[in-house]
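for the writeup, i need someone to sanity check this before i put it in the appendix. the sequnce is what the collaborator sent (i think, or maybe the updated version? ugh). structure was predicted straight from it, no edits. if anything looks off just tell me and ill rerun, i have time this weekend
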Amino acid sequence: MKWILPLLIALIVGLQYRLWVGEGSYAEISRLQGDIVNQQAENEKMRERNRILAVEVEELKFGLDSIEERARLEMGMIKEGETFYMLVEKDKGRR
């Protein structure tokens, strides 16, 4: 009979240890919930980025206007029959 009380105390201490410190403890659950919130925010950013890229891909596939705009801005291309004018500012130090 004397050994039952110490056994019960040891059992309770062991279970409490797991509850507060061990695997599946309150601290670990709290940390994992924080990780989930951070990951969900990152996923939302990536979804928005993917949505923007998908729209851009669609425009490039089917929209000739966006292709023309990129060619003009990035490559300096002009249409046949257009005249290109380049305005150059005077250098203020020179006359």
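Residues 70 and 76 are 9 Å apart (CA to CA). Residues 29-77 form one domain.
thx in advance!!
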